[in-house]
């Protein structure tokens, strides 16, 4: 029976911050008017929604009318890719993205390719998990309509050169080479990284609540003024008709509060997490032979440690860890419905064996040094146990 | 990310398991695994199936009583997920308990028998236990091969249903076991009939057959 509970899956879901919950309470428990209604409760709801929009806009250096509320990261990514590509077909039918985007982007791009006559270039990241800005820019053609590169990868936490791509794409536009705009999925980057749309030079940016200690089921899409989007759903004029449907007022308020808190504590929290992360990574690499860090050692999110332990399978280790009270996640095929191993690890040019043995630990605000020590003490013998019953001995040359 | 954790754990430690208690017992305390390096002639037969690239690899070693052809010892090594480890462990018990199965009986061991003994496995995990009976049959053939009794070797022939995509009935069976229950899903896994639509009616029949065989 587990004696300790160590939650290291914050990249999947982070707990709701109590201050966020407090900010949302009036809109969950109160009259809960509809922001579109002409009465006192309706006005109160509309004021709260506007206020949340203004607060988010000011945090990311945007204007309030550039913030669209959605149901989360997946919808924002879908709206950015599908909505922008469809509304701007006149500019071309070519898309550029990275090979290890979140499925919300990859599958939207795939859908446009399969069903709507678009073509796409998938830029491969380097072995270190970083897409080169040169490669991304080189893929841009006169008929490229949209470039979508994530701010930080969700599995391996590597930080992408979005600002550099944005700056150079702008130059290409100014030179008349292309009309393409830039979207970035900032679901994982939000919180740890500053989201300044001016510095990033993006026209579209995805945020969601659940990864930043905010509510689940709320997200936002920043869409720069003048950027045309075709709606994905119909039935109202909310969110300028681009995302109709009665607004999630409590969610919007919670998202604004969550972003503000992240921004306030960013510097100190990042420093604390980086120290813990590096203790975890360094400790595991030192204690477990035939292990490797996936993704760049420093250009990665402060809370992400993704390692592969060779000669055993990730799901089995995940279950042994769970029994010891440690909750992580894996890129192993066995935990995915498709039974395919992580497309992210494979996109780095690493073999299946590395993907099958990969584990992601994502640290959070409640993670302590004692938690990290507990993982460092608990994990190595579990790997040893699984290796003892495994017939596989992968040669070093395949993964180092 | 593809709901990575949804069915393997929850924060409720009392009812967190996606697997039955019997699966857990065999996963956490695997029985009869080979815990050392072994010389080729030390056992009467060995069998192998899978590869680490496809996510599961399994090897078995058998000691067989030459007179009765009963399996006296069954050792194994598995690279794979929780249910692959548990199903191999439980199969090692099934094959050797009560004086051991005869090779004939062991050859008839079905994935469903192993799964029933485990008290069930999630549908999409079922393919893991299928591996174990295959490795066992591979070892039984090896036993007869070593004994020079080639007439007792059973080759598991598979029939090519799509010559273009080189897809066999066995590939369709695997796809169904891995959870592809519709033509589209099976095509995604095997590419069967893509560019060769004439075979599709036969493929649909096979999918129905395997679906009923494994999932009722």
UniProtKB/TrEMBL annotation, chain A:
Annotated GO MF terms: cysteine desulfurase activity; iron-sulfur cluster binding; metal ion binding
Reaction(s) this enzyme catalyzes, per UniProt: (sulfur carrier)-H + L-cysteine = (sulfur carrier)-SH + L-alanine
InterPro entries to which the protein is assigned, alphabetical: Aminotrans_V_dom, Cysteine_dSase, PyrdxlP-dep_Trfase, PyrdxlP-dep_Trfase_major, PyrdxlP-dep_Trfase_small
Lineage top rank: taxon: Bacteria
Cofactor(s) the protein requires to work: pyridoxal 5'-phosphate
Keywords: Iron, Iron-sulfur, Metal-binding, Pyridoxal phosphate, Transferase
Classification via Gene3D superfamilies: 1.10.260.50, Aspartate Aminotransferase, domain 1, Type I PLP-dependent aspartate aminotransferase-like (Major domain)
Domain (Aminotransferase class V): residue spans on this chain: 6-375
Pfam families assigned: Aminotran_5
Family assignment from sequence similarity: Belongs to the class-V pyridoxal-phosphate-dependent aminotransferase family. NifS/IscS subfamily.
Matching PANTHER family: CYSTEINE DESULFURASE (PTHR11601:SF34), CYSTEINE DESULFURYLASE FAMILY MEMBER (PTHR11601)
Protein name according to UniProt: Cysteine desulfurase NifS
């Amino acid at each position: 029976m587990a004696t300790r509970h160590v939650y290291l899956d914050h990249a999947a879901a982070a707990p709701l911050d109590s201050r966020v919950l407090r900010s949302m309470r009036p809109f969950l428990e109160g009259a809960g008017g509809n922001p579109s209604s002409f009465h006192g409760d309706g006005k109160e709801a509309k004021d709260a929604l506007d206020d949340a929009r203004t607060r988010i806009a000011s945090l990311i250096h945007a204007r309030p009318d550039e913030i669209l509320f959605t149901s989360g990261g997946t919808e924002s990514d879908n709206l950015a890719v599908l909505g922008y590509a469809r509304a701007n077909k006149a500019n071309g039918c070519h898309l550029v993205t990275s090979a290890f985007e979140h499925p919300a982007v990859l599958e939207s791009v795939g859908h446009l390719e399969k069903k709507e006559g678009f073509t796409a270039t998938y830029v491969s990241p380097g072995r270190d998990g970083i897409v080169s800005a040169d490669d991304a820019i080189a893929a841009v053609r006169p008929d490229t309509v949209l470039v979508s590169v994530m701010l930080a990868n969700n599995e391996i936490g590597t930080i992408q050169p979005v600002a550099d791509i944005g700056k150079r794409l702008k130059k290409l536009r100014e030179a008349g080479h292309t009309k393409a705009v830039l979207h970035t999925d900032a679901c994982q980057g939000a919180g740890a990284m500053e989201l300044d749309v001016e510095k990033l030079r993006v026209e579209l940016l995805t945020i969601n609540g659940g990864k930043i200690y905010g509510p689940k089921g709320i997200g936002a899409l920043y869409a720069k003024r003048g950027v045309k989007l075709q709606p994905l759903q119909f039935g109202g004029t909310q969110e300028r008709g681009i995302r109709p449907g009665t607004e999630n007022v409590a969610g919007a308020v919670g998202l604004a509060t969550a972003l503000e808190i992240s921004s306030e504590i960013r510097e100190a929290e990042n420093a604390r997490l980086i120290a813990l992360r590096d203790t975890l990574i360094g400790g595991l690499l030192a204690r477990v032979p035939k292990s490797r860090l996936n993704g760049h050692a420093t250009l990665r999110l402060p809370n992400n440690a993704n390692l592969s332990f060779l000669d055993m399978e990730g799901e089995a280790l995940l279950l042994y860890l769970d029994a010891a009270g440690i909750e992580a996640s894996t890129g192993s095929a066995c935990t995915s419905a498709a039974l395919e191993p992580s497309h992210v690890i494979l996109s780095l040019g690493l073999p299946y064996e590395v993907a099958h043995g990969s584990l992601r630990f994502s640290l959070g605000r409640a993670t302590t040094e004692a938690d990290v020590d507990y993982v460092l003490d608990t994990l190595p013998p579990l790997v040893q146990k699984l290796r003892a019953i495994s017939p596989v001995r992968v040669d070093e040359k395949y993964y180092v | 990310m593809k709901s990575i954790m949804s069915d393997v754990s929850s924060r409720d430690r009392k009812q967190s398991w996606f697997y039955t208690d019997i699966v857990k017992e065999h996963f956490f305390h695997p029985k009869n695994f080979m815990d050392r390096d072994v010389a080729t002639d030390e056992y009467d037969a060995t069998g192998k199936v899978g590869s680490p690239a496809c996510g599961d690899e399994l090897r078995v070693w058998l000691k067989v009583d030459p007179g009765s052809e009963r399996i006296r010892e069954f050792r194994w090594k598995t690279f794979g997920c929780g249910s692959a480890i548990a199903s191999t462990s439980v199969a090692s018990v099934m094959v050797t308990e009560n004086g051991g199965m005869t090779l004939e009986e062991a050859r008839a061991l079905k994935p469903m028998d192993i799964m029933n003994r485990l008290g069930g496995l999630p549908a999409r995990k079922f393919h893991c236990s299928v591996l174990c009976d295959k490795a066992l049959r591979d070892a039984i053939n090896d036993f007869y091969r070593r004994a020079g009794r080639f007439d007792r070797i059973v080759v598991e022939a598979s029939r090519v249903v799509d010559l273009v995509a080189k897809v066999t009935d066995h590939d369709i069976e695997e796809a169904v076991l891995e959870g592809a229950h519709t033509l589209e899903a099976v095509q995604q896994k095997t590419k069967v009939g893509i560019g060769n639509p004439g075979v599709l009616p036969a493929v649909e029949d096979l999918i129905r057959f395997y679906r009923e065989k494994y999932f009722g």
